[in-house]
Design a protein that fits this description.
about 400 residues; 6-stranded parallel β-sheet; about 35% helix; binds adenosine-5'-diphosphate; alpha/beta; Rossmann fold; 13 helices; binds magnesium ion
Length: about 400
């Protein structure tokens, strides 16, 4: 099979795995829910996405130590953010025993790692229980490196962070790319560097500042950039349009102004909403009103794009050779404001061109509308996918061995 995009790093497929103990960094940062039998995994998409790499390592007979972060524990170990429910779900998915370590590192964990037999699995505790994780402490990296002989990184969603488990440890062990990480980089770089034309970039979500890097890069390189979500209100304010009680990122107004000025002479078409759906409050039961234009009266918040905007955006998406979409069109979590995101999601799903979607909330929206399987690539990385699209090097990828 010929693969899209470029990837210059050594693959786990070519790693000298046999008999070596593997430390695999995975992205098991999944949502949990409190049930009758304790905490369980609410959405196992990310665990499933790591299975091909885990299975490949097990088939080669290597004992495997798995590590990930989970949520944002404030200081030290927090039982509510233990990896135990994740290890339990992984065991179900693999139909195999999965051991749970008592901590991230330390003598007890080292002993458990040493005891692992061929193809056996040990899940470490939440890496962020260790303060040295986010500070990329060499001592923590050293303690992690003592658990294995080979490092495999499959955590694309964390690859934009230079943390001890994503970067530091790869200076101490030979580092190979997992299958998911490789596929993510290939799919996204293909869109970024060699898109089939026309290239349509659809950006929604909450803040301009989150997406400004991507807008900046694609104003020169895409054929169209479609803006929606709360982000559009920074653009409207920059144009002196009334935004009522809409969510406006104030710092985003100057950024939006700059984008509008750059878009003027650019061959790239910058589209903004032409109509909106408004509500009194950010609530599913609020009073709802379709606005004929984009001026939002006081006492109202713009919470979705209107039907004319959805139709126009869908038309551009359908005509594109490549579509990259990040960020919902509106407050899709609330039923009265989900139509815009659903319409655009359906257009992306039905588009004849190559379709790639990134972003946690965008993925959640596609899943909610039953469209997740109908795009060509649904990235598991939010921030990482945006940074890659911006053209920034990802520290977790850079540090791996070259092919
Ligand atoms: P992603 O995770 O896909 O990158 P973001 O995190 O940037 O997306 O944005 C998603 C959030 O933006 C959602 O929680 C959604 O409710 C919110 N949002 C989108 N449009 C609006 C709007 N008009 N007003 C308020 N919130 C909005
Ligand atoms: Mg988000």
């Amino acid at each position: 099979m010929t693969q899209r995009g470029t990837f210059t790093k050594a693959s786990v497929r070519d790693a000298p795995l046999d008999r070596s103990r593997v430390l695999a960094r995975v992205d098991f940062n999944v949502p949990l829910t409190e049930g009758e039998s304790g905490r369980t995994v609410a959405d196992d998409t990310r665990i499933r996405a790591a299975l091909p790499t885990i299975e490949l390592i097990r088939e080669r007979g290597s004992p495997t130590v798995l590590v990930s972060h989970l949520g944002r524990p404030k200081q030290g170990p927090d039982p509510a953010l233990s990896m135990a429910p994740v290890a339990a779900r992984l065991a179900e998915l693999l139909g195999a025993e999965v051991r749970m370590a008592p901590a991230v590192v330390g003598p007890e964990v080292e002993l458990e790692a040493e005891r692992l037999g061929r193809g056996e699995l040990l899940v470490l505790e939440n890496s962020r229980f260790e303060p040295g994780e986010t500070s990329n402490d060499p001592e923590l990296a050293g303690a992690l490196a003592r658990l294995a002989d080979v490092y495999v990184d499959d955590a694309f969603g964390a690859a934009h962070r230079a943390h001890a488990t994503t970067e530091g440890v790869a200076h101490l062990l030979p580092g190979y790319a997992g299958l998911l990480l490789e596929r993510e980089v290939r799919e996204l770089t293909a869109v970024r560097d060699h898109p089939e034309r026309p290239l349509c970039v659809v950006l929604g979500g909450a803040k301009v500042s989150d997406k400004i890097g991507v807008i900046d890069r694609f104003l020169d390189r895409a054929d169209s950039v479609l803006i929606a979500g709360a982000m559009c209100f920074s653009f409207f304010r920059a144009r002196g349009i009334q935004t009522g009680d809409s969510l406006v990122e104030e710092e985003g107004i100057a950024l939006a102004q700059r984008v509008l000025e750059r878009a003027e002479p650019s061959a790239c078409e910058l589209l903004l909403p032409i109509d909106l759906v408004a509500g009194r409050a950010f609530e599913a039961t609020t009073e709802v009103r379709e606005l004929d234009g984009i001026a939002v009266p006081d006492g109202w918040m713009g919470l979705d794009i209107g039907p004319r905007t959805a139709a126009e955006y869908s038309r551009v998406i359908t005509a594109a050779g490549t579509v990259f979409w990040n960020g919902p069109m509106g407050a899709f979590e609330l039923a009265p404001f989900a139509s815009g995101t659903r319409a655009v999601g359906e257009a992306v799903a039905a588009a004849p061109g190559l379709t790639v979607v990134g972003g946690g909330d965008s993925a959640a929206a596609l899943a909610r509308f039953g469209l997740a399987d109908r795009v060509d690539w649904l990235s598991t990385g939010g921030g990482a996918s945006l940074e890659l699209m911006e053209g920034k090097p990802l520290p977790g990828v850079e540090v791996l061995l070259d092919a």
